[in-house]
Amino acid sequence: MQFKDYYEILGVEPTAGDAEIKTAYRRLARKYHPDVSKEKDAEDHFKAVNEAYEALRDPAKRKAYDQLRSRGYRPGDDVHPGPQDYGDFAGGGVDFEEIFAGGGAGGGFSDFFESLFGQARRGSARPGPGRSAPPRSDTRAKLAVPLEAVYEGKSVRIGINGRTLDVRVPKGVREGQVIRLAGQGATGGDLLLEVEYAAHPQFEVDGRNIIHVLQVTPWDAALGATLSVPTLGGNVELRIPPNSDAGRKLRLRGRGLPGDPPGDQIVELEITAPRAHSVGQIQAYEALRDAFAGERV
Questions:
Q1: Could you report how far apart the first and last alpha carbons of the chain are, in Å?
Q2: What is the pLDDT of residues 128-164, one digit of tens each?
């Protein structure tokens, strides 16, 4: 399989901090999201960006990846990770297998990702000849659940230990809660799935609130507008007040994660000026510059 440079995919340096990595992911995920992007091969780019973020956002995964990358691999190089490449994964430093439910942002992951992070979590030895089978015990894993499944309370399909299971996700389940599947553990015990929220290209979670960054044009921010805004329950119309500044936060009540009470969706405005592609658009920007000569933000 071929080595992937996750830092290059996100356009960040290997020294980038968590905030910079998250910002790069959000920007590229919006650019390549298959539902809105007109870029060539948008879906493939989107999957690559999502995979890179999943590898780098988790400190243990990032450490294991960095150890492999430090051996001098470059994009396209053939690589066959061995036990020495797994870092904390190989030594049991990570307590939980991590499972990504089908239908999450970006779909499945590459063979490279599965080889690096999948083999490590499947590294436990089976009993050989003359050895007794291990006693039944519960198997613990982390389940990365798409936010849409949390919002709707529907089942997700996962693959584990060579099997495919349908897991019902309670509506509004919180991170850290455990879903128990009786008798589905590796040794005949129960499978305990600790819920975490899968990364999403459009939304972030703050408690029960959902945060969404909405890109608006300078004229919509200055004059006001009614724009369509995505939510976990579908698009809604949101009125942008005149003279809105970048960073202004607008609240959609009850549009966050379900609960008692339900959370809200917080829409943060990000003012973005489109590129000028025609002579008329360039002249319009020049006229705007002249009209606001001497003004300061």
A1: 51
A2: 555 555 567 888 888 989 999 999 999 998 887 778 8
